[in-house]
Amino acid sequence: xxxxxxxxxxxxxxxxxxxxxxxxxxxxxxxxxxxxxxxxxxxxxxxxxxxxxxxxxxxxxxxxxxxxxxxxxxxxxxxxxxxxxxxxxxxxxxxxxxxxxxxxxxxxxxxxxxxxxxxxxxxxxxxxxxxxxxxxxxxxxxxxxxxxxxxxxxxxxxxxxxxxxxxxxxxxxxxxxxxxxxxxxxxxxxxxxxxxxxxxxxxxxxxxxxxxxxxxxxxxxxxxxxxxxxxxxxxxxxxxxxxxxxxxxxxxxxxxxxxxxxxxxxxxxxxxxxxxxxxxxxxxxxxxxxxxxxxxxxxxxxxxxxxxxxxxxxxxxxxxxxxxxxxxxxxxxxxxxxxxxxxxxxxxxxxxxxxxxx
Length: 358
Known about the structure:
Blueprint: H1 2-15, H2 27-35, H3 38-45, H4 54-61, H5 68-77, E1 82-86, E2 89-93, H6 97-101, H7 111-128, E3 136-139, H8 157-162, E4 166-171, H9 173-180, E5 190-196, E6 210-212, H10 214-227, E7 230-234, E8 242-246, H11 252-259, E9 268-272, H12 282-287, E10 293-296, E11 299-302, H13 312-315, E12 322-326, H14 339-350
Antiparallel strand pairs: 1-2, 3-7, 4-5, 4-6, 5-8, 7-8, 9-12, 10-11
Helix pairs in contact: 1-2, 1-3, 2-7, 7-9
């Protein structure tokens, strides 16, 4: 019976737009057994992507109401489901493997789970890249956005920060996983930002990070930029609730970008003025996280088809020889309006029907 619960959970996760592909080895089932009890696996499958109260879930599924809220709160605390508890109001929903369950295992990640996730990423990553839309988009260093370019709101980290009311910072799950596998990162680790539209919404959050002020959130972004970390957000226009600050050595997304530049949505590219370039090599050797800069005679040049337009190369150029250029309109991909629209488009491209879980 317990194996049936995990098999069903795996099928449900694969039915969701993000996907959770099966493997010949069954490693995905081993991951689920590490995270969920059989009872939790069964309860997850009864949830939806739309938040509901315990009373609504009980009425819809026929589950006994007694003890249900407590079970759901426990699963939320364990990073198995999403939702919020604010005073007397508590709502719960299922979430995909990525972005979702995997990231919420930060406080439960041990060497065994890290090894399983590393192995599974070889399958999941290739599966995810087969279909769009991209899961993440790059937000450039804001001061480098061309002044003549009217930047859209989701291109500006300041806009994302200013319209939020509560903030939390935590260590990067990718860096933690790699560290547990004897590959510690040399860059700052506590750089993952969560944001919420209401004050206090992140207090006592199961993610377990450190609640910070808006000013401290800006400081996290400054530290990230100084360290050469790329700002990544969800590939939507509205409803952003995180800013990942990612390195090229640990981040699964940026690792994929090195092989498949279209793995992220980007809106700019960098350009080096060969007449001003002194060929110091800092941009290529220290700043570009994906290897998109190469020697070109007596100077360096940006490999445009590989560049993701993060702007990190330009921030430390001693000759100020690098600038960001906005892509032409027909060379840009507008992200879906919000998460709901992203789910719909992703499901359409994958050919999966997730209507039972909306």
